[in-house]
Amino acid sequence: MANNSVGNTGRVLWAGLRALLVLTVVCGVLYPLAVTGIAQLAFPGKANGSEIESGGRVVGSELIGQTYNLPLKDGEETAAPDLKWFQPRPSNGLGTNSVNTRYQLILSGATNRSGDNEDLITWVKDAKAAVIKDNSTASYTVKPSDVPADAVTSSGSGLDPHISPAYAKLQVHRIAEQNHLTVARVDELVADHTDGRVLGFIGEPRVNVLKLNIALKELTRG
Fold first, then answer.
1. CB neighbours (10 Å) of residue 146?
2. What would the mean pLDDT of 72-90 be, rounded to a whole number?
3. Could you tell me which residues come within 8 angstroms of residue 215 by beta carbon, excluding any fewer than 6 positions away?
4. H/E segment holding residue 15
5. pLDDT at 179 over 90
6. How far apart are CA 150 and CA 170, in angstroms?
7. Which of 1, 146, 197, 210 has the highest CB neighbour count under 10 A?
């Protein structure tokens, strides 16, 4: 009986080992290779991270936002925005106490603060004041009612690469002044880079900030 028991156990273990080896090869090697191959053939851009190139080099992804700030000065904890570029929405929080002020992928997520949280209220008020100050020019004054929600709040991921057309248009006068362009030309630039709803009814119109700034760079060079 003992020999039969040992023999049965050996056969079961050998069968389990064979199943493990087969499933490892199929699920761990063949299936990933097949999926990767199909993705590379059918959707090469998306499979490789939806990279965006400018000047012959990759400058980012159309799926991930990034900051456009001045270099940090001694003693500064948060870099000031470079006002010659279109600015993105805040990244995962606001102010110096932000969870993520630099669009770091490892910190993706929401602030998890409720609408009546005192810190969140303070961050939004400070961000709104900054938006009004930064975007008001000698010939154009931003009113508090002009500031859209996405200008002072982060997205759920904190990494949204898009802003609303309203926020992009709010920045037009500043961009025109900083880059010595006409307001009409910058308005046209925003309109050209405004994407509509997916399939005409999903989501909201949006503007990819990286693509818009690349176009702005090319325009100022010209």
1. 16
2. 85
3. 189, 192, 193
4. helix 2-25
5. yes
6. 12
7. 210
**CA-to-CA distance for 101 and 158, rounded, in angstroms?**
9
Using CB atoms within 10 A of its CB, is residue 28 exposed (0-12), middle (13-18) or buried (19+)? exposed
Condensed to tens digits (0 to 9), the pLDDT of residues 9-51 reads: 878 888 889 999 999 999 999 999 999 989 888 888 777 778 8
What local confidence, expressed as pLDDT, does residue 2 receive?
53
**Dmax of the chain from CA atoms?**
98
Distance CA 73, CA 36 (A): 44
CB atoms within 10 A of CB 65: 24
What CA–CA distance (Å, rounded) separates 155 from 160?
6
Query: Is the per-residue pLDDT at 134 higher than 60?
Result: yes
Quote the pTM value: 0.78
User: Does residue 167 have a pLDDT over 90?
Assistant: yes
The residue among 45, 59, 81, 79 whose CA lies nearest residue 161 is 59
Gyration radius from the chain CA atoms: 25
Cβ–Cβ < 8 Å for 53, 45: no
DSSP strands (E only) in the chain:
51-54, 57-61, 162-163, 194-195, 206-208
Please give the average per-residue pLDDT across 147-167, as a whole number.
Answer: 90
125 by DSSP, 3-state: which? Answer: helix
